[in-house]
Amino acid sequence: MSDVVEQDDATAVELTAVKLLASREHSRYELRRKLVARHPDGALVDAVLDDLTGRRLLDDERFAESYVAQRTRKGYGPVRIRAELAERGIEGALAECWLEAAGDRWTELLADVAHRKFGDAPAEDMRALSKRGRFLEQRGFPVSLIRRYLDDVKAF
Q: Do 2-58 and 61-102 have matching folds?
């Protein structure tokens, strides 16, 4: 009888996990946190996650690739994306791999994001320049790229 209950619990955990994965990619850390909130048996959740990983339904590398692409499309920089990946349980080396893959596009992305927000007009005073810098910093771009951009748009 106990084996049947465990199989039913495992099936319920797996069903919940697959439903969550069907909506979007999840990191193992995120998915575990969500599953443990619904099914408190941590060992059972880990066993199901191991099985899903073995069947390649759950893959942190695929999640990191997808997440970096999604956040880049939304105009976020590498500093912020790296922090968000860490919050989602993605180790530093894996995050760096996908952030470095974007390479030289960060400068182009920063210019595009700034253009969408501030247009083509140069910054006429220090206040306007500071506003642009703060916005780009909150978006997660490195200070070195922000300084280079600000030097280019300074009109005073």
A: yes
Tell me how far apart the alpha carbons of residues 37 and 138 are, in angstroms, rounded to a whole number. 31
Query: Does the structure show a pLDDT above 90 at 132?
Result: yes
Q: Say what the pTM is.
A: 0.89
> In the CATH hierarchy, which fold is given to the domain comprising 61-102?
Arc Repressor Mutant, subunit A (1.10.10)
CATH architecture type of domain 2-58: Orthogonal Bundle (1.10)
- Type of residue at 93: A
**C-alpha distance from residue 77 to each of 36, 70, 71, 80, 93 (Å):** 32, 11, 8, 6, 17
- Give CA–CA dist 43/64, Å, rounded: 25
Residue type (1 letter), 94: L
Confirm if 93 and 61 have CB atoms less than 8 A apart.
Answer: no
The residue assigned the tokens 């575990």 is: 32
